[in-house]
Write a structure and sequence with these properties.
mainly alpha; sigma factor; RNA_pol_sigma70_r2; transcription; RNA_pol_sigma-70-like; RNA polymerase sigma-70 region 2 domain-containing protein
Length: 293
């Protein structure tokens, strides 16, 4: 089922890259409720979430031609676009000291060990996260879905940012706490890539890592791997239907309101034929009048 959906989304993205408005509408219908839920969860502000949702689908239209270059599954690609924009908004809010309301708009509940269905939703089947216990996995999920920083974690848990980073390092790399102090270069790159995807790096380190990623295919592949590893953490979110105005404003931004649906150039266009027929009739009428006169 997942493979079939991935194939359908990939086909739609390829059609969107060719300017196919109908494919864009279908893609929006298939994904927007889940993406809106992620926006609401991360931003804790419905107007900001709606604006971010619009930004995401504008980016989809504009970046679809580069989709294959990302080497990600369609939903991972879409989730990555969403989180990048939501994290940018959160950082801007922190800089201007406009923090979101502390009361969550959407509750993030944690399934218990005995909740088989809930555990299946929360726990990935494979990869490094599959080894975490439920408490540590829930901690990682909150970082991923709420955009928490090490400072946020330290304030919540009454610890220090350094302690929180050491604990997360152990979780991400599946290392015993006593072995997490000294990392090999390969382990250091794994941690750096994971922190980049989670949005835990400061601005200077983020920029330096992105520059390295652009130049180093190996690091680029590691970052992509972490995007795939972490994307399943969104699977337990309850979809939230996007407001109709969000779709309308997205269309307006892209100039798609009056644009026709994309058409196969190999198919005959009925409107073109009608216009041609009208033109021929007008010419015939003009010729008839000329003959009479």
């Amino acid at each position: 089922m997942a493979d079939a959906q991935n194939e359908q989304l990939e086909r739609l993205i390829a059609q969107i890259a060719k300017g196919d408005r109908a494919a864009f509408e279908t893609f929006y219908d298939m994904t927007s409720a889940r993406i809106h839920a992620l926006c609401v969860m991360m931003l804790n502000d419905r107007p900001a979430a709606e604006e971010t949702l619009q930004d995401v689908y504008v980016a989809v239209w504009k970046q679809s031609h580069n989709f294959v270059d990302f080497k990600l599954q369609p939903m991972t690609w879409l989730i990555d676009i969403t989180r990048n924009r939501a994290l940018s908004r959160l950082r801007n809010a922190r800089r201007s000291e406009r923090r979101p309301d502390t009361k969550p708009v959407v509750q993030l509940t944690a399934p218990t060990q005995g909740d088989a269905e809930g555990s299946a939703i929360l726990r990935p089947d494979q990869g490094p996260l599959a080894r975490l216990d439920m408490e540590r996995l829930q901690n990682l999920r909150e970082i991923y879905l709420r955009g928490l920083t090490y400072d946020d974690l330290a304030a919540r848990n009454g610890s220090s940012p350094r302690t929180e980073r050491e604990m997360l390092k152990s979780d991400l790399l599946c290392l015993p706490a006593e072995s997490a102090e000294t990392l090999s270069p390969a382990q250091a790159d794994q941690l750096l890539a994971a922190e980049l995807v989670l949005g835990l790096l400061d601005e200077e380190t983020t920029e330096a890592t992105l520059n390295r990623k652009a130049d180093e295919p190996d690091l680029r592949a590691i970052v992509g791997g972490w995007k795939e590893n972490l994307a399943p953490l969104t699977a337990g979110l309850t979809p939230i239907m996007a407001p109709a105005r969000a779709r309308q404003r997205t269309r307006e931004t892209l100039g798609l309101i009056a644009a026709p649906l994309a058409e196969d150039p190999n198919e005959q266009n009925p409107r073109y034929l009608r216009r041609l027929l009208i033109a021929l009739l007008a010419l015939a009428a003009a010729a008839g009048l000329a003959y009479i006169w």
